[in-house]
Structures are given as structure tokens and as C-alpha cells.
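ok here's Putative glutamate--cysteine ligase 2, seq below lol
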Amino acid sequence: MTFTCDGVDEIFADSTDFTVGLEEEFAIVDPETLDLVPRYEALHAAAQEDPVLAESVAGELISSEIEIRSGRGEDLADAFARQREARTRLFALAARHRAALASTGTHPWADYREQPNIDTEHYRRVVDGLQYVARRNNTFSLHVHVGVNGADRAVRVCDRLRGVLPTLLAVSANSPFLDARHSGLHSARTQSFTKTFPRCGIPDLYGSWAEYRRYIELLLATNSIVEYTQVWWSVRPHFSFGTVEVRICDAQSTAAESDALAALIVACVAQAARDEDAGVPLPDHPRRLLEENFWRAIRFGLDGDLIDLGTLREVPARAAIDGLLHWTSPVRAELALDEPALPEQNGAQRQRASLQEGASMQEVFARTVQETQQTYAQEAAA
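and the structure came out like this:
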């Protein structure tokens, strides 16, 4: 069936502002060696016996990866409740099947050439179309969907978030290791994924649904894509759900970090929508400056500086986070959202610090997997 954009504006017209959907990707690893293991098909089959997991578990590109989805939450609290229940059930299921789940942006030492892809029509198409680029992509991330009413408004909210994306990446950086090496980066996942996949990273500024639709339809007409999900921008309107989907972030090692990051993203999307409603001028930052900040977030994470796009001066990444909190304070008050409880150090900083203290890469990853097991698996019961 050939995809068309017909009906997408109706989906967004029916969308409810600030509903929330969460998607968390986990690596499936051997509990003893912590190597990636291709257990997705077995876990997915077992999940069908659980009515919660049957609805929330999904596959991604490789068989050693599993995703859980909250489904549509009426607000952030509802999405959290749904996701926490699914997390607890999934971690228990994995343990019963002699598997562990890890949550970093990359697996530190896995050889991508040894990872089988899952056998679905969508991912067969991705691998066939992208070849090495798809096979090389063994990465794990957090995606957050926020309902936005109106297709024009959703596209313009994406436009407004372009300058915010590097800060969100710096907050989430959690992948210093790749190919059995310390990469020297804070988010090797982002370098590996967004700098190789086509139609990826920080999007262009479109200004309207009509313009975005023209772009998608051009790609379809020129046989560049066959479905809209082959546009992998770090923020994009999601045609099936009527949401703005933020896709920039590394997977988080602890449940608390994942929740705090999701809360910050929801606040950013909602504040961008409120700015659009109020007629606040749409930022049109040069792509070269957005890309500079994007690189700085990849390379230095929260240890580095970003360019303040208003003053064109360097500011510490931590100060950029304060700027996001200040900007989103009105909508957080409106929606009764607490200030996100972001940690003093993010995942990349903790892993790099452990390495500098003398731990091996294997020991650092083992500690990170333990963090994940102790937080995602137990939080609902706690």
C-alpha cells in the first residue's frame, strides 16, 4: 500500500494538546557476560501472555534490542504510570528468560556485524535501502511524543524546538563507548546515528504543514522514501499519532533520569506550543550555529559550552539547562508539572569519571547495567 499525506491534517485536527507517549529502547544482554544477545523474538513471544506487555513491547532494528511504549497517556503523570508498570513487567520477563536489559546509548563493545536484524517488512525495507548505514546502527534512545492540535501548529512547534535540541542532547548524553573504545565523545550514539542516516539530525525550518507536506511528497514522488517514518529528524511531526516526537536523546541508565528528561521534553514542546499561540516570533537560527551546538553536545555533553543563540556568546551547558527551565516555567505552572529532577552528573559524566578512576570499560558498563536493573525493574513495586 502506497503511503500518502491525505488525512494527516485531520489526524492533527483531532489531536489533544499535551497527551504524552513514552518510548524507551533497551539492549538485551547476557546477564553474566553483558554481551548483546538476540533474544527479542523470544521475549516478544513470551510477552503476548501478559496483557500489558502485549500492547507495550515492540521491536527495533536488531534482535538484541527491545522497546517499551506507554501508549497514549492523557497527561505526563498518566504516561509515567503506564510506562512504570510496563517496565516492571518487562524486566521481570527478561529475568525469567535469562536475559538482562541495559540502557545506554550504545553497547560499549558489541560488534555490529554480528547483530542480526529483526525480520519485519519495515526493517527489511530499512536494511535493504540503507545497507551498511542501517546495519551499523546499533543504538538505543528515548523518544517522547507530545500531542499537538493542528498540523500547521505541530510543524511550527518543531521549528521552534530546533535550537533546543542540542541542550536536550547534552542533558541526555550517555554513550561514551563504541566499538570497544572510549570514543572521546559524550554521545557516540548521536554521531553514529544522526551523522550517517539520511534525513536525520536537526531539521530544516518549514513554517507550515503545506511546506512540510510538499517535502514529504517530493521524497515519495522521487522514490527517496516509501513511508514518512523514513524521515528520521531529531524532532518531527508524527503522522499516525498527531504528536510532536522528540528523538534526540540517548537512552537513560536510571528510571529517574529517563523520567526527568521526559518531563523536560514535554515542558519544552508545550511551551513552544504556547509561544506559537501567543504569536511569539519564530526563531530562525542559522543552521551553521545549530550544527555547531549539536557537535558541542555530542563531543562535550554537560562538560562543555554551548553558544547562546540570542547573545552569540558561549555559556556552560549547565547554564543552557537553566535557560530551558526558565523558558518553560510558565507552562509547567499551567500544567502543574514539577521542575525536572535532573542529576548532578549525567550518564556520560559518570561513566567517564569511573574510567578515569581506573575502572575498565567492562566494569563501568557492569555498574551501569546494575543501575538500570535496580531502578527500572523495581520502581513500580517501590
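fwiw The radius of gyration is 20 Å. kinda neat tbh
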